[in-house]
C-alpha cells in the first residue's frame, strides 16, 4: 500500500505525458464542419450573381423540392475541378443552386461559359455573409437541403466522381 | 527537357487562392464610435479565424477573417452585444470558433481538474506534515 502511494503520482505523470504526446503527434483535423446541419436554412435574399440569371433567396429552398446548395467562386480552383460532377448531378435531375462567394458578375459569367452552368439560380454573396450564415468555412462546399428548407448534410471541398452516386441517392431520399 | 520544364514552372502564374474583390467595408476600417470599436476589437481578439486556424480574426490577413471582422463591426454598430455575436458564430461553427472555452459537459474537466489537484495536494501535504510532527 505504501509503495503504491509512492509510485502512483509518477505513474499518473507518465500516463498524462503519454496522453499529451499522443495528442501532439496525432494530426489535427483541419476542417470546421457546419453546426447548421439539421437546422433550417437561415433567412437570406441574394441578388443575382450574373445579370439575366435569377438570384437566390431562402424561400426558393423551401418550395417543396430538395436542392443542392453549392458555394463556389470563379477564383477557386477546386470549384472548377468539381464542375463535371455538378454537371452529372444536374443531368441526373438533382436541382442545384449556387452561391457565388466574393465574386464579380463578369467573372461568374466567364466561369459558367468555361465550365458549364449546372445552376438553376445563383446568388451573389459579396461579403461572405450568407456563407457564414450556413456555417461554411470555405469554397467549394455543398449543402443538401430538403423540400422544407432543412439542411441535411454538408460536403466540404470539391465533389469527387465517387461522391456523385451517393449525392444523387441522398437527394432522392430527401424528396 | 528538365530545364525547359523548370523555366515553364518559373513562368507559370501561381494559382489564384483569393478573390480580387476589395476587402469588406469594415474589415480594416475602425468604427467612428471609440467605445464600439473597443468592444469590437476585444471580441475579434477572441474569435478564431476559420481559414488559418491558429490566429484570431484580429490578427489574420485571410479574406474570410476580414469578412468576419466586418460582420463583427457592423453588428456592434447596430447595437448588438458582443456575447450575442459570439453565440451567433458558435451556433454556426461550434465552440471551436471561440477562444473562450465555455463551461460545458465536455470542457468541465478543464475547469474542475485544477481544483481537484489543489485539493489532493492539500490533503497529501497535511498528511505528511502531521507525520513529521509526530516523528
Which features would summarize this protein structure in a list?
heterodimer, A: 175 residues, five-stranded mixed β-sheet, 6 helices, B: 135 residues, mainly alpha, Helicase, Ruva Protein, domain 3, 0% strand
Query: Which band does the percent of strand residues of chain B land in?
Result: under 5%
Q: Quickly count the helices of chain B.
A: 5
Question: CATH homologous superfamily name of chain A?
Answer: Glutaredoxin
Shape of chain B: elongated
Q: Give the H and E element order of chain B.
A: HHHHH
Strand order of the largest sheet of chain A: 5-4-3-6-7
Strands of chain A, count: 7
Describe what you observe in this structure.
The complex is a heterodimer of chains A (175) and B (135). Chain A is an alpha/beta fold and 175 residues long. Chain A has one domain: Glutaredoxin, CATH 3.40.30. Helix content of chain A is 37%, strand content 18%. In chain A, β6 and β7 (151-156) form a beta hairpin. In chain A, α3 packs across α6. The mean pLDDT of chain A is 94. By secondary structure, chain B is mostly helical. Chain B folds into two domains: 23-102, Cytochrome C biogenesis protein (Helicase, Ruva Protein, domain 3), CATH 1.10.8.640; 103-135. Chain B contains five helices and no strands. Chain B has helices spanning 2-11, 34-44, 63-77, 82-93, 108-134. In chain B, α2 (34-44) crosses α3 (63-77). Chain B is elongated, with a radius of gyration of 25 Å. The model of chain B has no long low-confidence stretch (mean pLDDT 87). The interface between A and B is medium-sized, with 24 and 26 residues.
Short description:
The complex is a heterodimer of chains A (175) and B (135). Chain A is α/β, with parallel strands linked by helices.
